[in-house]
Every structure is written in structure tokens, then in C-alpha cells.
Design a protein that fits this description.
Strand content: 25-35%
Shape: globular
Order of helices and strands: HHHEHHEEEEE
CATH architecture: Roll
Number of domains: 1
Number of strands: 6
Radius of gyration: 25 Å
Number of helices: 5
Length: about 180
């Protein structure tokens, strides 16, 4: 009888403890400061300004280094197609993508812009994630759009740098030309 009573008391105590734990806030919360959030926001604005002005030095200063992952990975369907036809080890990613992007920005004759909307920033200490919708424009015409994500890190100098950039790509449909009779 005492053993059953002891087990019942232990069960009630355990359930009560678990209920209190479930109702309490998490012990570990994200570490974020308004100053860091403003600095991260400034990087997004500087990125857009660098694209518009084709300022490759400014653009590169926002990156941790020129070897970061910077690309729109291929869809699973495209990877399968390339593997079947050309390259059995193709994984949908490429190397040197930031350098290719910078080269494109620097050599494009037309006006460039990349517009961001719905920017969401999550920071935890020296690491941050930035996600937004984008539109990439050439001569004021949207060329592609999608969702872009950045991983960022705070350097020993206290600067926020882009560690990786990944985005989806949706191309604008080509206008249908009507045939004159």
C-alpha cells in the first residue's frame, strides 16, 4: 500500500513539474541587440546601393570573402536532367558564383537594381539570418524574382559580413508576340 502511495505521489510530482516546465518560457533566448539589427539592416541597404551603382568594391566589402556560397541552386528536376544527359555528379551548385555575379554587375551596360521586400532578420549573438523577397531588374524591367536568404556573421572587428547567399529564381515570362496578318 505504501509503495503504491509513494508511486502515486511521485507520478503527481513529476506531472506537476512537467506542466510547470511546459508553461515556463525557454531558458535560452536569442541574443540580439538593436545596434546589431541596425547594422545588419544597413548591410541589406548597402548591397542594394552597390548593385545600383555597380560599386564592386562596396559589394565585395559586404562579403566575408569572395569564396562564399552565392547562388541559386538548380531544381531537383534540372539536376536530374543534367545528370542524365551531361554530368553524372552534378549537384545543382556551382563554384565561383560570387565572382561571376560581381563580373556581371561590373560589365552590364544597362541599369541594374535589386529590390527587397518582406525583410526578416533573425540574430543570435554573432550569427544572423536574413530572408526577403526580391526582384532583380535590368533597365527597370523585372528579370527574375524569388526568395533570398543570407547567413551573416559578426567579425572580430565588429562588422557584419555575408557568409552565404542562396535564392530561388523565377524568370519573368517572355511577352507573347502577336503575328500580323
Amino acid at each position: 500500500m505504501i509503495r503504491h502511495l509513494t508511486a502515486a505521489v511521485l507520478t503527481c510530482t513529476l506531472l506537476s513539474s512537467l506542466s510547470a516546465f511546459a508553461d515556463s518560457p525557454p531558458v535560452h533566448l536569442r541574443s540580439s541587440t538593436p545596434e546589431d539589427m541596425q547594422a545588419i539592416t544597413q548591410v541589406t541597404q548597402d548591397f542594394q546601393a552597390a548593385v545600383r551603382s555597380k560599386d564592386l568594391k562596396m559589394l565585395s566589402s559586404l562579403m566575408l570573402n569572395s569564396k562564399i556560397m552565392f547562388e541559386s541552386p538548380s531544381s531537383p528536376e534540372m539536376v536530374k536532367n543534367v545528370r542524365e544527359k551531361f554530368d553524372a555528379s552534378f549537384d545543382g551548385t556551382a563554384t565561383g558564383s560570387y565572382a561571376n555575379f560581381a563580373q556581371f554587375i561590373g560589365s552590364e551596360k544597362g541599369a541594374l537594381d535589386e529590390k527587397f521586400s518582406n525583410i526578416q532578420i533573425t540574430q543570435d549573438g554573432h550569427i544572423a539570418w536574413v530572408m526577403f523577397d526580391y526582384e532583380f531588374l535590368l533597365n527597370d524591367q523585372v528579370q527574375n524574382y524569388g526568395v533570398e536568404t543570407w547567413q551573416m556573421m559578426k567579425t572580430t572587428e565588429g562588422k557584419w559580413k555575408i557568409l552565404s547567399v542562396l535564392w530561388t529564381t523565377h524568370l519573368m515570362p517572355k511577352p507573347v508576340e502577336s503575328s500580323a496578318k
